[in-house]
Amino acid sequence: MNALMILALCLPSTATAGSRLDKWTGAVGEARIADVVEVPLTMYRLDYPCVKVKFAADSEKEYLFRLDLGSNGIQVSPDVVKDLGLSKKTRNKNRWISFGRKGDKIKWKAGGKVETSRIDTLVVGGLTLDDVVVEVRAIEQDPTLTPAGVLGVGALGIPTAVLPSAGVVRFAPADKADALLGDVPGGTILPFPRVESRIVKTYMGKQFHRGWAGVVTAKVAGQDAALGISTARSMGTLSSALPVGDVPRWHEGDVDVVWVPVSLGSVELPEGWYRHQGLSFVPPEDWHGSIGYNILREFDIAVDPTGGRIALARITDVKETPGEPVVLDTLAKKQAEAEKEPPKDEKAEKAARKGKAATLDRKATLLLAGGQVKEAVAAAQEATSLDPDPCSYWKHLGQALTTDAQFEEAGQAFQKGLDRYAAWTALPKEQREEIQAMDEEERAGASVQPQDLDACMDVAAWLAQIHILGGRAAEASRLYEAHADLDWALPLQTGIGLIREARFDEAQGPLRQALNLAAPAGAADASAAARLALAVVYEQAGDFPTALDLWNREVGTFAYDPLATAFYGRLLEASEGLPAATQGLRALARNFPDSAPARLALAELSSRGGKPDEATAALQEARSLLVRETRLQPRLGQAWAYLAWTEASAGRLDEARKAATRALETKPSNEYAWAALARVEAACGNLDAATRAWEKARAFGVSNVLFSSLEKPAPPSPAAPPAAVPESGPKK
């Protein structure tokens, strides 16, 4: 039986427990729209399509919401609920979760918690949503740029199109569905039946299955499969019960990540990565996973959720869309409103000053994330002058100053933040609780002020970076001895600092501790960087097998880093010789078909091995991959930085300079962009400019152990010109 037919048989035909459960994940009483409306498409962190949403209860506040074409629900973060003063309702009946395993059987019990809230009206451009029930749920988020929620098209119940080629999102009334699907030029229309949330019985017991706006019948490695689509998840998932054959794969923890071809009817999707894992939370016979936005970003997509149709059309270029945080507008309005009414007394004045400082601190982090470095420094400095108590304000000032290459001033800011953090954590727990229980006026008289531990717990690591940049690894080591138990990132930075001073034996202890420390939510995992640093230690000791083993444990991360792939080639060459190293990099390039860095490393080894044709071909492949990436994600600074690195390797200096400049516009602290610019300036004979760029690359790459060995660029030898990439490659 066709997988899509099986799904249809599972769908409830009347209002059942499934449709009732859908209300727990978000629902709309009425969607009011007079005609087709168009709103700007905003790309959050370049990975997800978003729209700006206003709440009628406070029309001055505007938030960024992900738009998920594959979801039946509406989610709002707890921060928004608190900000708007909404009430919450807790539900937990008929929600099933796993609580233990006995032998091969999983035990299940009623439990978990679903929190919902009701909002009178939401407004998205010309679309008005009335009587909205939202699920209050933490949104997967970056701690700086925070989407406030997720709008699922299945919950909206109206035809919706995400059109990256035009940089817009369109909504339409139900009777204009045909016109909206026609907005996808040359699109293929496929069935897209809805799946309700429901509780189902499987051989493992009762399970809660969140619904989807629809599913498509797909071919995965030549086999039929029923897949959902998700524009709010970066990577799709395939059931491990679905065999995919001998395809490129790597391990992410205990999960295989596989590179497979998928087709939807006559629509051939680009090959891409999917997590290949067990889907124990859904019946395996009628569900095979989902397609993520890493694949769907190459399409204009329109969905008719009530008519059960989806239209897709492949695109070659996208219109660049705004990526600056919507929160900046909200903060500006909030600050302007606060300044309209002067405080009436000293207490109100102090509260107003603290409130303004908090607004400026938030503004500083958003400006820095958006690449507005000077403005971020100014906002952070004003925040600390208005309220010097929070250590997080000093940390954010230090981060802004670091990005502005004011390293001495940054160190002073980090030290002030660390002093406050250490003073607070040094107090006995009972005393901290006593201070926190005080009213605001009493707390102001306390000698030590409460601190946000989550926001401050890496301030010592930031200070250690400044010491390392100044050649003071001993100072970083002293920080490690004093504060390693308070700062999850400090052992890693200490180990890297010791390696930069060639104190390899001393680096092992901090690095091994870094492997065992879990990063807080929203922070980058330090384990991969720690393994890379340990691999450098073992390389120096001549223990190449151990170094290679450490590298291979994080292959899914290192295969996309130019210096890490070059280091891999170096390890192979040292242990097995140049021919074997070249062969190993060929295998790496095959296993990671979308990795430009693997091809860059292969080009370098092939050139040294006397194979200029292979080197030129590898450079061309790398360039083609990166040009495609910058076309599809024009605001992805890392792709521009790697393209600059590639163009510099190929001797295309003008193109390299343009790409590096574009990368630095997005992220002024991009170490690879500065390194590429250093190579360009050196090749042009501008040695002073090359030295300045090289020093910035080493400074901003202080957390990457391989940047400590970055060679100072020098003019190329006339006898050994760089390999040229043919002009027949993709054009920008």
SSE inventory with pairings:
Layout: H1 3-10, H2 17-24, E1 27-32, E2 37-40, E3 42-44, E4 48-55, E5 58-68, E6 74-76, H3 78-84, E7 89-91, E8 96-102, E9 105-110, E10 114-124, E11 127-136, E12 149-152, H4 153-156, E13 160-163, E14 168-171, H5 177-182, E15 188-191, E16 198-202, E17 205-209, E18 215-220, E19 223-229, E20 236-239, E21 249-252, E22 255-260, E23 262-264, E24 267-268, E25 272-277, E26 289-291, H6 293-296, E27 299-304, E28 309-314, H7 327-340, H8 346-369, H9 373-386, H10 391-403, H11 407-426, H12 429-437, H13 440-444, H14 453-456, H15 459-469, H16 473-483, H17 490-500, H18 504-515, H19 527-540, H20 544-553, H21 555-558, H22 562-576, H23 578-591, H24 596-608, H25 612-632, H26 637-649, H27 653-666, H28 671-683, H29 687-700
Parallel strand pairs: 5-12, 6-11, 19-26, 20-25
Antiparallel strand pairs: 1-11, 2-14, 3-4, 4-5, 4-10, 6-12, 7-10, 8-9, 10-11, 13-14, 13-27, 15-28, 16-17, 18-19, 18-23, 20-26, 21-22, 22-25, 23-24, 27-28
Helix pairs in contact: 7-8, 8-9, 8-10, 9-10, 10-11, 11-15, 15-16, 15-17, 16-17, 17-18, 17-19, 18-19, 19-20, 20-22, 22-23, 22-24, 23-24, 24-25, 25-26, 26-27, 26-28, 27-28, 28-29
Describe the structure.
Helices cover 45% and strands 21% of the residues. Mean pLDDT is 83; it is low at 1-18, 94-111, 141-145 and 719-732. The protein is of the alpha+beta class and 732 residues long. The radius of gyration is 27 Å and the shape is globular. A nine-stranded mixed beta sheet has the order 21-22-25-20-26-19-18-23-24. The chain has a six-stranded mixed β-barrel with strand order 4-5-12-6-11-10. The chain has a six-stranded antiparallel beta sheet with strand order 2-14-13-27-28-15. The chain has 29 helices and 28 strands. Strand 10 and strand 11 (127-136) form a beta hairpin.
